[in-house]
Write a structure and sequence with these properties.
InterPro entries: AAA+_ATPase (IPR003593), ABC_transp_ATP-bind (IPR050319), ABC_transporter-like_ATP-bd (IPR003439), ABC_transporter-like_CS (IPR017871), Oligopep_ABC_C (IPR013563), P-loop_NTPase (IPR027417). Keywords: ATP-binding, Nucleotide-binding, Transport. This is ATP-binding cassette domain-containing protein. Residues 13-260 form the ABC transporter domain. There is one protein chain. This protein has 335 residues and is of the alpha/beta class. The chain contains 11 helices and 12 strands. The protein has helices at 59-66, 89-92, 106-109, 116-126, 132-145, 162-174, 192-209, 220-226, 244-249, 254-261, 303-307, and strands spanning 10-21, 31-43, 48-52, 74-79, 82-83, 99-102, 180-184, 212-216, 229-234, 237-243, 313-314, 320-321. Strand 11 (313-314) and strand 12 form a beta hairpin. Helix 4 crosses helix 5 and helix 6 (162-174) runs parallel beside helix 7. It is globular and about 70 Å long. The two termini are 36 Å apart. It binds adenosine-5'-triphosphate, iron/sulfur cluster and magnesium ion. Adenosine-5'-triphosphate is lined by residues 19, 21, 33, 35, 53, 55-61, 218, 285.
């Protein structure tokens, strides 16, 4: 594993993203979706931070805010110690070389009418890097890095399998030697057998190139495979954050435990209780519950939970939990 230095590569402080929906010209009359709610996190160089949570909990919105692909409603975002919260599009452009995104659907993010060689050469042309045979060499090297062959440059995206398309998506993200990759559900659209290959590729590239990752997924098992630390999101907020293995083997937030126990891969975790899925629906993002956002589904809710929102509190062991009544560590083997 790459050495972890002391200054975060990315730091978010109370980051929020509110979408306003509706046709009224008056912003105050439009409905608000609090997709990201005061998220604070740090990502150290060489580290992989996994972000997990149910569909609609704000993972992609957070990922796009961290990449400055969309405006941030409030809070602060720093990249390598520099405040980039409100950088203009012109000033954010050079930063694009340092932060890249890998998307869930590689087919949708690759222009079907252009050859792969062209698609991979585009970042160099846009940024005025190299020319002619130099770019061809760079493209061949990119293809090799992701386990494809130089002659694949001549093919069109539809001539590749899903896993190969994702390799091309990763190659494109790597073209400009970024320091940070935000991967938003990069394997969710792939067969399980191919998922492991892509995860291994990402892990190898991280070692080889000293990359830092933010890895977004709803599948805890996938996130655990590649992450050093993991953040669990619920209704736009981080409810638990800490070392990936510790969070999954000894969850302290009731939601983390439910999420883990709903995992469809019993072989990874011996079932401690019946696997029942996640009970109840996610509350409407238009009207968040008072107090703890998880209280409408929590088996441990008490009156204090409706009255007071629990803050994300970090203990001496580095684990952050937003719960008034955190779970105690479980014993590893059931009697
Ligand atoms: N452009 C947008 N305009 C309005 N609301 C949005 C927009 N994008 C996302 N939302 C809303 O914000 C909330 C968070 O959505 P987001 O896509 O970030 O969740 P997610 O965790 O990535 O979900 P999934 O796992 O399904 O990808 C949802 O309620 C969603 O409907
Ligand atoms: S604060 Fe209360 S409702 Fe929220 S997770 Fe903890 S016990 Fe459950
Ligand atoms: Mg998403």
């Amino acid at each position: 594993m790459t050495d972890i230095a002391a200054t975060p590569l990315l730091k978010a402080t109370k980051l929020s993203k509110v979408y306003r929906i509706g046709r009224s010209l008056l912003p105050s009359r439009r409905q608000q979706v609090h997709a990201v709610n005061e998220v604070s996190l740090e990502v150290m160089p060489g580290e992989t931070l996994g972000i997990v949570g149910e569909s609609g909990c704000g993972k992609s919105s957070l990922g796009r805010c961290l990449m400055r692909l969309q405006d941030i409603t409030s809070g602060q975002l720093e990249f390598d110690g520099r405040d980039i919260t409100h950088l203009s599009p012109r000033r954010i452009r050079p930063l694009r070389r340092e932060m890249q995104m890998v998307f869930q659907d590689p087919a949708a993010s690759l222009n079907a009418r252009r050859r792969v060689g062209d698609l991979l050469a585009e970042p160099y042309r846009i940024h005025g890097i190299g020319s002619g045979s130099d770019i061809d060499d760079r493209v061949s090297e990119l293809l090799r890095r992701v386990g494809l062959r130089p002659e694949h440059a001549l093919r069109f995206p539809h001539e590749f399998s899903g896993g190969q398309k994702q390799r091309i998506g990763i190659a494109r993200a790597l073209a400009l030697n970024p320091r940070l990759l935000v991967a938003d559900e990069p394997v969710s659209a792939l067969d399980v057998s191919i998922q492991a290959q892509i995860i291994n590729l990402l892990a190898d590239l991280r070692e080889e190139l000293g990359l830092t990752y933010i890895f977004v997924a709803h599948d805890l098992a996938v996130v655990r495979q590649i992450s050093n630390r993991v953040a669990v999101m619920y209704l736009g907020a981080i409810v638990e954050i800490g070392d990936a293995d510790d969070v999954f083997s000894r969850p302290r937030h009731p939601y983390t435990r439910v999420l883990r126990d709903a995992m469809p891969r019993p072989s990874l975790y011996p079932p401690r209780r019946a696997r029942t899925g996640i009970a109840g629906d996610l509350p409407s993002p238009f009207a968040l519950p008072s107090g703890c956002p998880y209280r409408t589904r929590c088996a441990f809710a008490q009156p204090k939970c409706a009255a007071e929102r629990p803050a994300l509190t970090t203990g001496a062991d580095g684990r952050g939990v937003a719960c008034h009544f955190p779970l105690r560590d479980e014993v590893t083997a059931d009697p």
